[in-house]
Amino acid sequence: MVRFTSIALSALLVQIASGQSIRAANVHSNVARNLSYDRIAGYEPNSKVTDHNALDRDQKFMEIELSKGTPTGLARAKRIYQEGGNSKSYAEITLSVVLPAAIQDKTVVTGTSVGDELIFGKVMSAEGNQRIVKIQYDTSQNQATWVGCRVGGLNEGRETNGCFKDSGTIVIDGKSYQYTYDSTVDNKNGRTLQGFSTAVESKMIACGTAAGCPMKDAKFFTDYYGQANYGDLWIQAAFNGGSLTNFDYGNTNFSSLGYSAQSELIKKGTVCMNTFMYVIREFEDAIADCRSQCDTSTNCNDDPVHAWDEGVAFYAGSLEGLDGYSSGRMLHQLADKRCRNFKTCGLNGDLDGPTTSSVNHGLLKLFNRGKEQLLSNQCAAARPTVQEIASLMYIPLIQGTLRYAYFLQTGDRNEKQRAEGAVFAASVVPRVHAASASAASIISSNMSLEATITSFSSVKTAFESVYAELGITCRQVGGIVNSEGMYYPGAEPCASGSDDDSTSDDGSDDDTSGCSDDKTASDDGSDDDKAASTDDGSDDDKEKASTDDGSDDDKEEASTDDGSDDDKEKAATDDGSDDDKAAAADDGTDDDGAGCSGVGSTGISTVVLLLSMVSAFVVL
Fold it and tell me: What DSSP character marks residue 378?
């Protein structure tokens, strides 16, 4: 059973009595606003985004299936990619009677779980003259217990104890209904890794007249590939061992690749292509919804802040833990892994690890700055902040491409290394192309799967020619180092007089995460793929609070959600699985600078209030 704080419970009881939606009570309560949500890699969200933060567990379990190296594992990985399992869980039940009229979305639902506990949810879809009802499970603000029903496409990591029983009675808006369904089949997910890509067209390109639409970075990639769902097309071709023939640029053939290379194209594509662009989208969406002329005492910008929190959550993921020192699977981890290879770890970007990357340190500051700008109605000021965030996010992708360019020139050109180099390049070349078509052509021709030779110096020079336009510097990108922290000949940082950090590999095999590289034959000993565990805490993504800003999350459309801020619920994200290996293992470096705030007098008063309320409620 999902357990609630006493305040959330009391608010819920009031809702049930009054017929209010979960969201309304959850988001607009001034008391709720005073609660503190679990940090996300150092970032303190202002809303509940635990469910969004947990999407990284889809990446984790997909990678587990891919690692099995079997046709069954590949098929299961594809199901997780398409169907999810850990985020925006909902039940699709069949009532014994036809509904005489539609039931309003977000209406409170109660029922009994497989584990015989009282559980809560809210209506996602209940149309008149129909018997099918979709109910989204309520989520906790505690990341370790964010939701008790996790099925979707999962094999490992599946949890049904917190799902509705296969048959029984549910109560919707005070009225009881008999229902049936199959808890192992009819529990689905409205947010998926695939959805991050398939939503690009509707949410980032053809998104109407909203400010900032079409979104700049999404347009760079859509214009380059000629397809808005470029990421999904890439990943599906990799799963199927097929070819890409309908891109304007970057067509390629995966049919001759072995399982190892195929796996790299998939797991890096889901993070570096799909998730990368959706993270930027959440920040852009927050600005589009921001209201500069409103009374801040009315919490008028809660929705934009929730979207912002969501962006951070998707960037870091739940497995990074509270402070970002655990081994995650998303972009935060990638940045920390790459910094070890390029000697750009630490606050000053001059360490080769193990510690938080200068990219993540910088992003944490920007995440916090953007949040405060939105809360104080500084909408125009927040736009440059988003641009700075996007610029920093490209650095690990550039580093990954450079690293494999070096290996492909100096070492074994096995297909796994070629695949890793190709997916990193495909994740950043469209941005380069927007700055210089000739530079993009050089990088692409050297890094494509079809390339028979790779010139590292040509790739390096091409990237360096567009650093200024991308808003980054030579120092921020750094140079490739060996396990002793020494630069490889010809791979030193360029000179641009920048003040950004640089990174380097500590020789450890970091590549365990989706977008981060795996250890390759000519690896210097560090497996990038284990994306850095030390986050600066930035990824929090405050999903749009209770007053949905209209962004996709809250508009829950059931199973086909792209994973966006659906319910924009505020914080909670650990499934309780080991992935969370969290931050306890601090390396003692400054990484930890993540903003944990202590409990002041107001916090103590709130705790006392909570304890007194807990004594008054017992959930049976």
Answer: -
Q: Which of 552, 558, 560 is nearest to 135 (CA)?
A: 558
- Residue 499 near residue 477, CB atoms below 8 Å: no
- Are the beta carbons of 564 and 191 closer than 8 angstroms? yes
**Helix/strand/coil (H, E, C) string of 435-488?**
HCHHHHHHHHHHHCCCCCCCCHHHHHHHHHCCHHHHCCCHHHHCCCECCCCCEC
pLDDT, mean of residues 372-378: 95
pLDDT at position 294: 87
Band of residue 210 on the pLDDT scale cut at 50, 70, 90 = confident
- CA–CA distances in Å: residue 442 to residues 149, 417, 447, 476: 48, 19, 9, 22
Per-residue burial over 183-196, b if 16 or more Cβ lie within 10 Å, else e, is beebbbbbbbbbbb
Instruction: State the Cα–Cα distance between residues 573 and 419, nearest whole angstrom.
Output: 32
CA torsion through residues 91, 92, 98, 101, sign = positive
Asked whether 203 and 552 are in contact (CB, 8 A), the reply is: yes
Distance CA 139, CA 375 (A): 24
Q: How would you label 28-43 residue by residue, b for 16+ Cβ within 10 Å and e otherwise?
A: bbeebeebebbbbbbb
Helix (H) or strand (E) holding 364: helix 358-375
Q: Which tokens is 320 given?
A: 């990074």
Q: What is the pLDDT of residues 16-32, one digit of tens each?
A: 333 333 333 333 333 34
Task: Say what angle helices 358-375 and 331-342 make with each other, to 10 degrees.
Answer: 140
Where is 603: in which H helix or E strand?
helix 601-614
Distance (Å, rounded) from C-alpha 257 to C-alpha 587? 39
Of 404, 374, 376, 620, the C-alpha closest to 511 is: 404
Contact 580, 157 (CB under 8 A): no
3-class state of residue 424 by DSSP: helix
- The kind and range of the H/E element at 416 are helix 415-426
Tell me which residue has tokens 């609070």: 545
Bridge partners of 157? 155
Backbone angles phi, psi at 257, to 5 degrees: -80, 150
Reported as a single tens digit per residue, the pLDDT across 480-509 is 999 999 999 999 999 864 444 333 333 334
Neighbours of 387 (CB within 10 A): 16
pTM of the predicted protein model: 0.80
Rounded (to 5) percent helix, strand, coil in the chain? 45, 10, 45
Count, residues in the chain: 620
